[in-house]
Write a structure and sequence with these properties.
Blueprint lengths: L8 H21 L6 H14 L3 E5 L2 H11 L7 E5 L4 H9 L3 E5 L21 E4 L12 H10 L2 E2 L10 E2 L2 E2 L6 E5 L13 E5 L2 H11 L20 H11 L2 H19 L21 E4 L3 H10 L29 H9 E4 L7 H17 L1
Parallel strand pairs: 2-3, 2-4, 4-5
Antiparallel strand pairs: 1-9, 6-7, 8-9, 10-11
Amino acid sequence: MKVPFVSLNTINKALKVEAMKALEEVYDSGWYIMGDKLQAFEKAYSHYCETDYCIGVANGLDALHIALKTLDIGLNDEVIVPSNTYIASALAVSFTGAKPVFVEPNENTYNINPSLIEDKITSKTKAILPVHLYGQACEMDLIIELAEKYNLNIVEDNAQAQGAMYRNMKTGSMGIINGTSFYPGKNLGALGDAGAITTNSSELDKKARSWRNYGSPQKYYNDVLGFNSRLDEIQAALLTLKLEHLDKWIIVRQRIAARYLNNLGKCDWLKLPVTAQNATHVYHLFVITTVQRDKLQAYLQKNGIDTLIHYPLPPHLQQAYKHLNLIKGDLPIAEKLANECLSLPMYIGLTDQEVDYVCDIILKFGNEI
């Protein structure tokens, strides 16, 4: 049996007729940038996230970068970032001129460990950037408490967790301003790069709209040195269509994850993902960890099962961040996860038989080690 790591075929086939109609409407309209489709999506997505405002932008990195810019974060500032996140979270900080300060994750949930944040706060710290990694909402209580105590802003990276919740609050609604990605493989994916910013602040909404459009709140009048980062009409139309199905797809992902957890529950040689109390998990990824990771991945590949490693080298060890003078051993939990984590197949259309096959091969590997 062949099991890909991800496939969009089921979603694409199910929505093809409606998607083609949406594309045709945009095509025939003759209006492709900053039009009615974008406004409709921004309204729908802000409603979904339970925020007052949504600003569509070109991609998730731009969403985070612009969000930070609206808070006037820049040179000589510091922003708290998880040490095991995808590098885009840190890049968004660096692009403002500020310094990303890495905090280790909880080994069980993979999300930033709130109890380690306070020790990294200095007089230069301006924000905490929690990443709802792999689809699970961060434990936000202490993060919110620390932000209030030290007068810091919270900027959520919600690129992997649209629809997840913490204490009945949607991810993307708990920070003062937040960013997300609609990269095609995300739970809510476009047909190319796309992203959005969410906020409850009318002031930050206005600033973000200006920053995404050449720094121009009014055409041909530019208040700041802004960017060209606009969610186009085609992507907005398709995302509006897909958003109607997101909650249903989340339930499917949770059902697949439950089957993995049940089938692999007795494997004492690997660690399964743990969902924190008061948090929900929408399973953008299903990530296990084991010291046998490389051998297991090769064994699965030999048996027709594709997997990925998220992520093989943490940001602090990347050449791009050599200037931070962090070396191997400085952030041991992130390094351990990078050496041991493995993402199993997870997508809409993955069948029970395929999940069982993946689990059977993993169990067979376990019996041979």
